[in-house]
């Protein structure tokens, strides 16, 4: 039966990721301590307001240098978690000298970890009623308690920033009035020998309306945007792999990477002919490895970027779609916190970054980032309506609500190459569901 061409629904859109782009005057010879200073300074007043709301306007907020033994007060600073299992260059040098190397760990936390509060180039050990296991290095926190005779700060209570300000507290006024879908995917894994080419073609045909019954087509005509959240290329295409093989094999690896980029260009060209597409870089994609990752260079996509509907964006990435603020990353920040904390659930980690008001608190300590010295672009000033993370082990979602009527949809997007799953978000009511595909040309809504 002949399939009639469907007309795709549209939705307002604006890219608001300016803060994640590097300026022309980039400096890599700066120290990272300035980033912590900027972070604390930028978030200080916000967390002071939270502290006064929680413990009363008359509570004493003091500097570390002014606290006195036994005096109840609130101190604001940045958490630092000292972990003996954390890898370091000094340990690597020691290993080269014949010391038995430490075995690799999925997590670098232990019960012997020590928690510090740092502020104004001073630090103090935190003890008492604060959970070290869920503490994340780099988080700005307000702790209430007193200094004991040993010089440690005994915590009786603590508070993070909480959900940020939401410009549009009445979410019903922001939502579109009809069904409009945002399609999220990640981990296409192009270039892997085990890749499923048919799977990618199914995605293209479904989105373009060439596949499925009338019900499928009626849904996909309402998909207004597709976001690919990193790792479009497979890990096997990384240039780093060439350092581990003989020189005569390096050309094969480089050629494989080039072919993978060409294939990605072809896929984006087909998608861009039917739907707006945003391509975020990821851990295995050809761009800078430290955060924020800059857009994949346009010279790699001569075909697809000819379409005005295809754009290469940053990681992290933020946009306004249908009046809703959408914020997301390709997953490095969540993966890093998973390794350096006792969180086991990725959705809990995603929520924790939102409650701490920071996308990547472990940068630059354990996750590399650009040495910003005048601002910290990872601070979440405005609460997003949709907060997603790509390349996670499985699909998960949660709708959380704040004290000031904020509503945020959290979404963990799994890699397409491993799970055959995409994620659809209804912009009308923030409902979210997975779309699982298989090579028998069937879909599971």
Polypeptide structure, described:
With 445 residues, the chain is α/β, with parallel strands linked by helices. 23% of the residues lie in helices and 24% in strands. The strands form 3 sheets. A 7-stranded mixed beta sheet has the order 11-10-9-8-17-18-19. A 6-stranded mixed beta sheet has the order 1-12-13-14-16-15. Strands 3-4-5-7-6 form a 5-stranded mixed barrel. A hairpin with a 3-residue loop joins strand 18 and strand 19. The longest helix is centred in the middle third of the chain and has 26 residues. It is found in: Nucleus.
Brief characterization of the structure:
With 445 residues, the chain is of the alpha/beta class. Helix content is 23%, strand content 24%.
Low-confidence stretches: 245-251
Sheet with most strands: 7 strands, mixed
Beta-strand proportion: 15-25%
Which of globular, elongated, flat, extended, rod-shaped describes the shape? Answer: globular
> Which structural class should the secondary elements be placed in?
alpha/beta
| End-to-end C-alpha gap | 23 Å
Strand order of the largest sheet: 11-10-9-8-17-18-19
Q: What order do the SSEs take from the amino end to the carboxyl end, as H and E? A: EHEEHEEEEHEHHEHEEEEHHEEEHEEE
Q: Helix segment count? A: 9
How many β strands by DSSP? 19
Q: Roughly what percent helix?
A: 10-25%
**What Rg, in angstroms, do the CA atoms define?**
24 Å
Mean pLDDT: 87
Family: Belongs to the DNA polymerase delta/II small subunit family.
Keywords: DNA replication, Nucleus
Main location: nucleus
Pfam family, one: DNA_pol_D_N
């Amino acid at each position: 039966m002949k399939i009639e061409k469907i007309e795709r629904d549209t939705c307002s859109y604006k890219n608001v990721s300016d803060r994640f782009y590097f300026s022309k005057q980039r400096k890599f010879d700066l120290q990272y301590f300035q980033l912590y200073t900027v972070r604390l300074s930028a978030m200080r007043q916000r967390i002071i307001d939270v502290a006064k709301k929680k413990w009363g306007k008359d509570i004493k907020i003091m500097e570390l240098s002014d606290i006195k033994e036994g005096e109840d007060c609130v101190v604001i600073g940045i958490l630092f978690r000292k972990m003996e299992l954390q890898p370091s260059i000094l340990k690597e040098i020691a290993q080269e000298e014949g010391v038995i190397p430490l075995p690799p760990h999925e997590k670098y936390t232990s019960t012997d970890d020590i928690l510090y509060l740092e502020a104004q180039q001073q630090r103090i050990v935190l003890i008492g009623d604060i959970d070290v296991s869920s503490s994340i290095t780099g988080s700005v926190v307000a702790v209430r308690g007193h200094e004991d005779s040993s010089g440690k700060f005994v915590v009786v209570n603590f508070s993070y920033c909480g959900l940020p300000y939401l410009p549009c507290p009445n979410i019903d006024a922001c939502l579109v009035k009809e069904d409009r879908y945002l399609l999220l995917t990640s981990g296409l894994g192009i270039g892997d020998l085990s890749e499923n080419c048919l799977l990618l073609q199914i995605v293209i045909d479904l989105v373009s309306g060439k596949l499925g019954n009338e019900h499928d087509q009626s849904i996909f005509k309402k998909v207004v945007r597709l976001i690919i959240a990193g790792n479009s290329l497979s890990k096997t295409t990384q240039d780093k792999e060439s350092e581990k093989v003989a020189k005569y094999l390096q050309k094969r690896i480089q050629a494989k990477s080039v072919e993978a980029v060409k294939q990605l260009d072809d896929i984006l060209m087909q998608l861009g002919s039917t739907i707006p597409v945003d391509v975020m870089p990821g851990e295995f994609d050809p761009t800078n490895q430290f955060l924020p990752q800059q857009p994949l260079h346009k010279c790699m996509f001569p075909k697809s970027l000819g379409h005005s509907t295809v754009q290469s964006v940053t990681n992290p990435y933020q946009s306004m779609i249908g009046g809703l603020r959408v914020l997301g990353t390709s997953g490095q920040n969540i993966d890093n916190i998973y390794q350096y904390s006792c969180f086991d659930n990725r959705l809990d980690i995603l929520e924790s970054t939102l409650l701490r008001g920071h996308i990547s608190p472990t940068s630059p300590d354990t996750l590399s980032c650009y040495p910003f010295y005048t601002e910290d672009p990872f601070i979440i000033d405005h609460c997003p309506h949709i907060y997603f993370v790509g390349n996670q082990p499985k699909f998960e979602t949660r709708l959380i609500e704040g004290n000031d009527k904020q509503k945020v949809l959290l979404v963990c997007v799994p890699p397409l190459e491993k799970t055959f799953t995409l994620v659809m978000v209804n912009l009308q009511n923030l409902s979210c569901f997975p779309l699982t595909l298989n090579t028998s040309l069937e879909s599971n809504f």
